[in-house]
Amino acid sequence: MPDEKVFNLCSARRTLLLGAGALGIAVLTGCGGDEPAPGAGGAPGGSAAPSAPATTGGNPFDDTGSGGGGGPQVPSDALVAADEVPVGGGLVVKDTVLVLQPTKGTFKAYDAVCPHQGAVVDPPYDGNPIIMCPRHNSKFKVADGSRVEGPAPRGLKGIKVAVRSGYVVRA
Ligand code: FES
Question: Which of 89, 108, 118, 157 is surrounded by the most beta carbons within 10 Å?
């Protein structure tokens, strides 16, 4: 008898469910703990099998130097792939390093943290020779990171970089 089997699985609730009919059986099948309830196919709205986690694809810019496996060897001190840095502009990597390519094949880098109150500066674009801080509009020269104007007490700290194996790396 299916009803007796269900009652044996959850005797603590037996008295509550006597006479509850089909509704009681449905509740009892849900208290079986680890055992799947007989006849209970996937409940609507229940948890589905988790989707596969997004693959990282081997971030070449992490600090592990793992290189993502199988791909070209990425220097352990790589900041960014050289071909990802726009000519006449730049980008901020790791939230702390501003990498610039003022002219094709020439790379510069500065500490991206503004010396005024610590905002991350905006990279220049389209050949603009000025780096702007978005918080209080301090301006710095692309050429050497020196302060042009604004409340920043000094220029951006330079970071020596080189290109190795197609990546901008700390020199
Ligand atoms: S934080 Fe950059 S100008 Fe104030």
Answer: 108
Kindly report the CATH number that applies to the domain delimited by 78-170.
2.102.10.10
Question: Which residues approach ligand 1 with their CB closer than 6 A?
Answer: 114, 116-117, 119, 133, 135-136, 138, 150-152
Q: What is the DSSP string of the chain?
A: -HHHHHHHHTGGGHHHHTT-THHHHHHHHTT-TTSPPTT----TTSPPPPPPPPP----TTSSS--TTSSSPPPPTTEEEEGGGSPBTEEEEETTTEEEEEEETTEEEEEE-B-TTT-PBPBPP-TT--EEE-TTT--EEETTT--EEESS-SS-PPB--EEEETTEEEE-
Within the chain, which residue ranges are assigned CATH 2.102.10.10?
Answer: 78-170
Using the mean position of ligand 1's atoms as its centre, give its distance from the Cα of residue 130 in Å.
14
